[in-house]
Design brief:
Layout (H helix, E strand, L loop, with lengths): L9 H24 L16 H24 L7 H18 L29 H21 L3 H25 L62 H24 L2 H25 L22 H22 L9 H16 L26
Helix pairs in contact: 2-3, 2-4, 3-5, 4-5, 5-9, 6-7, 6-8, 8-9
Length: 384
Amino acid sequence: MSAPHRPPAPHLAGRRRAASAAAATVLAVALSGCGLRLETPPPVEPSPDAVEQVRGRTVDDALGLAQDARAALAAAPAEPVSAVLTDVAAFGDLHAQQLGGVYDSGLPDATPSPSATASAPTPPAVAPEAVLEELTADARTALADADTVADGPLARLVGSVAASRVDLAQRLATALGAPAPDLAARPAGTDGTDGTDGTDSTDGTDSTDGTDSTDGTDADDAGVDADASAEAAPAGLTRTDLDALTLAHDEAGYGLEVVAAKLTDAARTTARDTAARHRQEASRWAEASGAAGTADDPRRVAYALPAGLEDPAVTTSLARTLETGVADTYGHLLASADPGARAVLLDGLRAATERARTWGATPVAFPGMPELAAVAPTPTPTEG
């Protein structure tokens, strides 16, 4: 009679389980040595969200502008075209740098890199007129993105980049003798078409005659839209924000009235008319905030002015400072306004930057962001 089957002792069962685990480990090691292993999915490139798409698009456009401007410079264009293209290239590099550069996930590139011995192809020639078209298109893109992006600080930076591109486009158009592009910011949801040929004709004159709009007749250039008084305050701005706009415009109006008294001829007319429109804008923002006619109205009877205003150099320097101050105020508030409500602020930044340039301000890479002035190179003096 055979012995009855008995379950293994507990200590024997434990040894068998340990032996099985050890065998599995040895097998896994052996298989890995033979090049066989369990497959794991490769890492996936993350999909950019809406904010990253704006940032990445602005970087790509900046680098593209810099590259094409340098390609146009390779043909040695005459001044003042060369000077403006030099700024387009330099400012494009700075814009890309401040925006964080091209995104790199750290994942391996699926596309093999070119051989180290392969020579880079010579970039094709680019005409300055093509750079102007690119500047115009990229400025419009940046204006639209700055208006609608959800991230406030990014909206401010992209808005500054947009204002820089607008200024560069206007300067390059002037240098080429081409019509100035219409680059006024427009509220989200509008297509920006007005039945015109795309040139800026807000003063009712033909911009192809090469005249400069420094006669003070262009209300849009003064940052004053004829229909703006009917607009409500941009969503997201506080009473303090609106008071800052009121004060900036009122101080500019006061100062330019004094400037007008010190100058003569066309410069006096420009200063006087622009001062009147600044006063109008100050009233508009005071009405929008509810401060007009109250004890809280931030406007003052007089503002401090520099000494030596009998010197025309001091006088024009004051005009530049006042307009730059208005631009900085608009630029600062871009970060606070709600998405879709920034068009009026973008247009204020654009117009104040243009007016400051009219008074001889040096072109800067980041209008409305004085804290970034130190990162900008010294631009080449231009006639544009």
